[in-house]
Amino acid sequence: MAAERLSVVYDTLYATWGPQHWWPAETPFEVMVGAVLTQNASWSNVEKAIVRLGAMDVLGASAIATMAKSELAELLRPVGYFNLKAQRLQNFCRWYLSAGGFKALCAVETEVLRRQLLTVNGVGPETADDILLYAFERSVFVIDTYTRRLFSRLGLIQGDESYEALRALFESALPADPVLFGEFHALIVRQAKNVCMTNPACKQCALSSRCSTALDSI
Known about the structure:
Oligomer: single chain
Low-confidence stretches: none
CATH superfamily of the largest domain: Hypothetical protein, domain 2
């Protein structure tokens, strides 16, 4: 993937949408909680669940790890699959505490920390990379459905590459800057949710002149 073409996409999206100020959270730990809960859930519902945790004064690793699973599941009800999410969140918090918490984990090299995150039951590559990028500010590019959709339509990827292949592709083509990675990922999500949807609004797209899907629709 040519770095110049990626740069054009980024500049166009930034000019269209402006800075996205991701990830919306007050603490790194809150970022981690959101990353676990946002799997198969809308962000608005994740925010509701996080507010419920905060209102009960249990938005902390120790509190989440030790509370009754049924109580946690009830607080997580807005995100759906709340029993499964409760188990996954407790799995994460217990690992997080056993690893020494945020300060200890900050000292761990990125690839080692990524491997450790992936050992947690319920944490897959996208969740691990969300945590690495937005909580630990590591230069790791997050690949999601929106990334595949947008860049396959632009003809920059096939769309069926493995997660790791796409991650390596983006990371090799961009400067290793967590601020850039986070902003780019957020802009991709914004574009895909508002314009490059499953049924795209090509006439509204600032990238339409570079997109085969848009050109085919003319």
